[in-house]
Fold this protein.
Amino acid sequence: MNGADGANGAIQAERAPKVYNRNPGFGARGGRFGATAGDTGRGAPALEPGPDDAVLVSGVSLRYRMPTERITSLKEQVIRTITRRTVGYNEFWALRNINLRIKFGDSLALVGRNGAGKSSLLKVIARVIVPTSGRVVVRGNVAPIIELGAGFHPELTGRENIFLNGAMLGFSEDAMKRKFDSIVDFSELEAFIDSPLRTYSSGMTARLAFAVAAEADPNLLIIDEVLSVGDEAFQKKCQARMLSFRERGCTILYVTHALEMAHQLCDRAVWIEEGRAIYSGPTQKVVSLFRESMEFETSLSATQKRQVVQVQR
């Protein structure tokens, strides 16, 4: 992937990287949340961050444990504990042995069908979720927009949520006061800024979230599919702001199903399928292969689709 210009890279490299590590052996079982060797790629060499790396994802796997029964009360939980009637769990691997290197100034799109693991990967990079195994290194100031309404409280007003979200991004109250007018102006929500967030539409919430993130002046901007709920004019406004970020050397990690927007914003892309990164390259090439795959799958009958899935597994 292409790095940023030297000056920006040098500045960012001076920042202390944020690192979290789970099961550095990449496959050894590590207690309750450990992953099995077959799921994390045992024996795969660990990646090491270079001086130009804004994000390094090395051997990351993420497992969810889904209960097979529903416990509806504390009483039922206590009785089950006393009688040693444990609840069964099914394992679901949202990510499997992901390796990803993003350099300063890169703009990278994650493409794939719903449920492929794209949003889970963003949450791991944004430090919302700790991976089951693997290592993640992030350098610089991060502004994540990973879920509609994330970091906001529905009972607080738009004004109060701006300060709340700013605090979560690491800004002081005085700093947010200086940014407040610009945030309201960009979001175009001045008439509603003192109304509770629960009265906002999904598009208005997305406007406010992006406006706060944009004023954070991040080194790494992480955006999930939330901008799709905005109107066309605001989407173009957000797109113009993201292009300006890219020109200034900001690293962008973008998840979208709007593949044309991925073409315009991102130089490279990674195709995520069933929790695995199956192809990485120039955006046009990755999008073309993904579209061909979707068209081929659409042409198959239900029986043929089941046969393809069995072969893949």
Notes: The CA atoms of residues 23 and 133 lie 5 Å apart.
